[in-house]
Amino acid sequence: MYPFSYTKVSDVPAAVKAGSDGGRYIAGGTTLVDLMRETVERPGALVDISALPLRDIAATKGGGLRIGALARMAEVAAHPTVRALYPVISQALELSASPQLRNMASIGGNIMQRPRCTYFRDVTAACNRREPGSGCAAREGFNRTHAILGTSDHCVATHPSDAAVAFAALEATVHLLGPGGERTVGFADFLLRPGATPQREQNLRPGELITAVEIPSHPRPLRSGYLKVRDRQSYEFALISAAVALHVRGGVIQTAKVAAGGVGTVSWKLSAVERRLIGQRPSEALWTQAAEVAAEGAQPLTHNGFKVELLKRTVERQLRVVGGTR
Hints:
Layout (H helix, E strand, L loop, with lengths): L4 E4 L3 H9 L3 E3 L5 H6 L7 E4 L8 E3 L5 E4 L4 H6 L1 H6 L1 H8 L4 H6 L2 H5 L6 H4 L15 H4 L21 H8 L3 E6 L2 E6 H4 L18 E7 L7 E7 L10 E10 L2 E10 L6 E2 L1 H7 L6 H8 L14 H18 L3
Parallel strand pairs: 1-3, 2-3
Antiparallel strand pairs: 4-5, 5-8, 6-7, 6-8, 9-10, 10-11, 11-12
Protein name: Xanthine dehydrogenase family protein subunit M
Organism: Lentzea alba
InterPro entries: CO_DH_flav_C, CO_DH_flav_C_dom_sf, Diverse_Substr_Oxidored, FAD-bd_PCMH, FAD-bd_PCMH-like_sf, FAD-bd_PCMH_sub1, FAD-bd_PCMH_sub2, Mopterin_DH_FAD-bd
């Protein structure tokens, strides 16, 4: 370890002030502490925000949902309102981690996770996220678990959050508070693709704090669910995952929300799949046809070409499950 300062704050203004002075926010610490132990992260100051009043979970007017940034993953997954309105969120959280981690990790921290790339976590390997300009060892190394969508010459690491896939599908909004006041960012713009600056992973300004994630209201009835495909059934990150939400009225799909995980440098919205579904009648043929476009634009690497077909099959399977035919 190395020396750092530690401050615990009890109100939001104090947190923003400490963050603006260069402190790194920490709540559950399930990611940051590991990275500090491995010397991947070396913050000079930690600001403990776990006591802030940001844990409320409540329905909004019209049937949306607001989740406080410090609500624990286990609390959100078990909350009756979440399970009733958006089971896709509960399922994504329950498949995310071990019970011990879900009891500690916060929603804000979950979507702020750093990459699970082995080269990022190996301080002897070249990694542009950890050390800009050093290169990306994963591009020519063993890249079976890496991204096939949203990659760049500078980075091919996937975003590891399961909850982020559900939030992307449901078109959530992230509420932020910083020295410049409050602002909101659509989830599609919150997580940043690597491009030429992979070290910048979120649309955050200096000192900004996530206060909540809000799901907008969607037409009812809305059926939703999350499917995670992984190498083992116990605690493991996704090879492929799919979050699906469908509103069917009069036998026709009126609303379709679909996103995938394990394949993109950010949680990946499958807009082409959604367009294939809207206005159509649910059928076995439709699920297959819609899933065929799930991997549009994919750029597989040496060892992860299998993800192209696996993505299509995973999306098709979850469309079938949520759509009511199996």
